[in-house]
Amino acid sequence: MSEKSQIGVTGLAVMGANLARNIGRNGWSVAVHNRSPEKTRHFMAEYASEADFTGTESSEEFVEALARPRKIIIMVKAGAPVDGVIEELAPLLDDGDILIDAGNSHFPDTKRRTAELEERGLRFLGVGVSGGEEGALLGPSIMPGGTREAYAEVEEIFTKIAAQVDGTPCCTFVGPDGAGHYVKMVHNGIEYADIQLITEAYDLMRNVAGLTVPEIAKTFEEWNEGDLESFLIEITAKVLAKQDPQGDGPLIDVIVDQAEQKGTGRWTSEDALELGVPLTAITEAVFARALSSLKDERTAASKILAGPEPAKTEDRRELLDDIQHALYASKVVAYAQGFQQMAAASEKEGWDLDLGAMATIWRGGCIIRARFLDRIKEAYDDGEVVNLLTVPYFRDAVASGDAAWRRVINAAVDQGVAVPAFTSSLAYYDGYRREHGPAGLIQGLRDYFGAHTYRRTDAEGSYHVRWPQDGAEVRTDA
Ligand code: 6PG
């Protein structure tokens, strides 16, 4: 028997295969395995010459091929398939072996699996990996959660295979049990918001400013030279510039306008609702995908519901500048909200998340990688952050684009173009910067119909008005 492999990867769809190749190319020996052995054979036929790979066809052979303590990366579809693989492998493992779930698992599942496997003497890491197929192969952003001592066993591998920015790996220990998958979930939620904001900017350019698709592609290309520089802006220019391979005109015009989703954005919003954190941009992005999917209803409604039609007559140059500002300001809000959510979760779960470190590992490799994240990292380096919106750099950036942001939203509303993420981001901003809001009325109404009580601005305690009786105010906590 040849020497045992240093690490194993099970699940050889594109992400798993590319991760295995990345690890192999960086000098580690890798045993590979897949539920259906054809995939393993295919992998070995294609890539065996790239690195020290051992193809294995059964779980027993796979486990047997690994040096102890075994380190096994599971890269399968989130949900039941992960439990299936764990159930298959766990009985074959020895105390102290480490199972590593590198898929997009929901963090409560990761918490459960961590507890269950620890009970069985095994160690478990829930690791967020972002970067798509190319990232997995060339350098992803990696968000590992679990125990520090289990992470220490794979730290060298993970930090080496991760993307590197200014010599810093886009991988750092995130926190206990579900923390790594939690942070990956919020990353994906922010990805939803970023994509939605870009899509709204595209809609405005096309239907309010009246630009052609090639002109819009060019504009995104230009924006990618400035503060908005990011992977998503870069690929937006490329997607829009693509000609239809099967006909004339831009490809975008023949892609069905129904957005799909696998659930990570929804999980982020659901969790924000649980935590009571206003996460409006991400949540609007999830809802916008849901609305887009109602194609038949939209088609019928388009024939009967009244409203303005976009006039495409705005002053283009000025409107384009405004859209750029609106996009930037809304993006600040989306990130501010995502970071607030991570802070709240960290507090609730006792994870002690280092949010500056999260910005650092998102600077490269992942889908939301952007120049912007350097600014967020700097904000956390400079001290305590209550909300990114109040950090001087972002406060000033938003203030300088404030009027443009409002003009864009006004134009969109006037012309009947829906911009839910832009609008809800501005609403959050206006709500957040207001000392005296209208919520006293909510409290008054709750007290009227349900005796839910209210607090006063000028005195301690809880109060209730005997509304239907004598209208007198009584203190309820005395
Ligand atoms: C990443 C991506 C990746 C995946 C998204 C797509 O970070 O590499 O986020 O995880 O492409 O989950 O999500 P939807 O299918 O829900 O848009």
Question: What do you see in this structure?
Answer:
With 478 residues, the protein is α/β, with parallel strands linked by helices. The chain folds into 3 domains: 7-177, NAD(P)-binding Rossmann-like Domain (Rossmann fold); 184-432, N-(1-d-carboxylethyl)-l-norvaline Dehydrogenase, domain 2; 439-475, Single alpha-helices involved in coiled-coils or other helix-helix interfaces (Up-down Bundle), CATH 1.20.5.320. It contains 19 helices and 12 strands. It has helices spanning 14-25, 37-47, 59-64, 80-89, 107-119, 132-138, 148-161, 179-207, 213-223, 231-241, 264-275, 280-292, 295-304, 316-349, 355-361, 372-381, 392-414, 420-432, 439-450; strands at 7-10, 30-33, 53-55, 71-74, 98-101, 123-130, 141-145, 164-165, 168-169, 454-455, 462-465, 473-475. Helix 8 runs antiparallel to helix 14 and helix 14 crosses helix 18.
Sum up the structure in keywords.
single chain; 478 residues; alpha/beta; Rossmann fold; N-(1-d-carboxylethyl)-l-norvaline Dehydrogenase, domain 2; Single alpha-helices involved in coiled-coils or other helix-helix interfaces; 3 domains; 7-stranded mixed β-sheet; 3-stranded antiparallel β-sheet; 54% helix; globular; binds 6-phosphogluconic acid
